[in-house]
Amino acid sequence: AQSVTQLDSHVSVSEGTPVLLRCNYSSSYSPSLFWYVQHPNKGLQLLLKYTSAATLVKGINGFEAEFKKSETSFHLTKPSAHMSDAAEYFCVVRHGSSNTGKLIFGQGTTLQVKP
Amino acid sequence: DTGVSQNPRHKITKRGQNVTFRCDPISEHNRLYWYRQTLGQGPEFLTYFQNEAQLEKSRLLSDRFSAERPKGSFSTLEIQRTEQGDSAMYLCASSLARTGNYGYTFGSGTRLTVV
Hints:
The structure holds two protein chains of two kinds. Chain A is mainly beta. Helices cover 0% and strands 52% of the residues of chain A.
């Protein structure tokens, strides 16, 4: 079975400091992994995706993530946090054993950015 | 297209009543998904359509839930005899089934409150 575990339910950083949101995955297949962001009262927005190409994936708004097979990790980073980054972040794996393409979400990490 | 549209945005209903939600996907997307997100959790897969065919349903989808996509375009999700445990955000997503394409677009969701 495939799953993702977000290791922190809440992360608090100061504006201008680096962001690290941690995610471990479990998959019997070569996984497709995503990070989504959800701002209050808004839809889920794709930040970036890994689909077995380059292991370092660059996304929108300065975010990037590195796929590490040996560590089964896909952590999300950003060099310098902005106030507008405060939101809920989800690590997601695409279900690989069927052809549905359904997504399996982690529990989410709330990112707080302090001025 | 302006993305995936969901209506209504909010719905408050009394326990035992029936409710119906609508999702209008991106027009060229042939895959449509319904997810449910409860407070503090990540979205969970409910069901999936490819064109008008409902190809997979989660065990979360009890007999009180039914979804349709009659012409392969918009979809409806109906909940009969609502219970307080049905209170959640119901999210719709669409994608285009194409090898190597993992682009999912989510709607802003319908928030259901059962009182």
